[in-house]
Write a structure and sequence with these properties.
By secondary structure, the protein is mainly β. The protein has a single domain, classed as Outer membrane phospholipase (ompla), Chain C. It contains 4 helices and 15 strands. The radius of gyration is 19 Å and the shape is globular. The termini are far apart.
Length: 273
């Protein structure tokens, strides 16, 4: 672990763009009209495919179905469609609508192996989501096109999961498949001729396709009906062109990544908003 940094403007789990937190695949505890605000410690890779981790203090804010809007992690969604009999055994639900999220970029200063690489700015994928539950099983699909000029690509995450709650404790495990087009994959995993000459890495072209699989959990414990201690954990495996990338195979690269977040938040009522 190389350093500890504080990024006050980053939402919790900002680098979980293709993980459990973003996919929200499992049936969830009904929490319409409830929000949480607090802080967390987030441990994750310095950049996509890095073998070094960094520890951050980040603020936490989330709310569910405030006039149709839901904020979780770095994604804001609007329920344009919300139908079904409910969530849980013997029930079904279907939600869909537009969404916008944030995805971190990469600085060439983060690794000596990225010498001469062009920095990748933050991305803002705008698109939509579909989320369905059948009994205890949930399915999620998120698709977005970057409009901020970070990677300029299209990303899609498909997930399956479930939800379990007993007393004040709840857990939501899920598995996710992450796909991206060539613009995204070439930016994060490709090496151009000039970058190869500057860094010493081999030239490499990355095309569109599935670039990662992940498994993870979102869990929380409510305390005195006012507070919640949250844990988000995710393990990712890079595959296909991403796994073959010289960046991930460099001395400080990695074909796997771990994200862990531990936080505490206070519950607040949004029914009157």
């Amino acid at each position: 672990m190389k350093n500890i940094v504080t990024r006050h403007l980053l939402p919790l789990a900002i680098s979980l763009a293709a993980t459990t937190a973003q996919a929200q695949a499992g049936p969830e505890d009904p929490s319409d009209g409830t929000g949480y605000i607090g802080a967390a410690i987030l441990l994750n890779s310095e950049y996509l495919g890095s073998g070094d981790e960094e520890l951050r203090a980040v603020p936490y804010l989330s709310f569910d179905n405030v006039k149709g809007f839901t904020l979780f992690g770095s994604t804001l969604r609007y329920r344009a469609l919300d139908v079904g009999t409910g969530q849980g055994l013997g029930k079904w639900s279907l939600r869909a609508g537009p969404s916008v999220s944030y995805q971190e970029g990469r600085s060439s200063e983060e690794s000596i192996n990225l010498t001469g690489f062009e920095d990748i700015g933050g991305s803002v994928p705008i698109g939509g989501f579909i989320r369905s539950t059948i009994g205890p099983i949930g399915f999620g699909l998120n698709v977005g096109k970057d409009i901020a000029g970070g990677h300029n690509g299209i990303i899609a995450d498909a997930a399956i999961g479930t939800f379990y709650k007993t007393g004040n404790f709840a857990i939501q495990p899920a598995a996710t498949v992450s796909w991206a087009n060539g613009e995204h994959n070439s930016r994060f995993f490709g090496v151009t001729d000039s970058e190869a000459a500057s860094s010493g890495l081999s030239r490499f072209s990355a095309g569109s396709g599935i670039y990662a699989y992940s498994v993870g959990i979102v869990s929380w414990v409510e305390i005195q009906d006012k507070y919640a201690v949250t844990l988000i954990a995710n393990h990712r495996w890079f595959t296909n062109d991403a796994a073959d990338s010289p960046i991930l195979n460099a001395s400080d690269g990695s074909k796997t990544g771990v994200v862990v977040s531990l936080g505490i938040a206070r519950k607040f009522d949004t029914k009157s908003w």
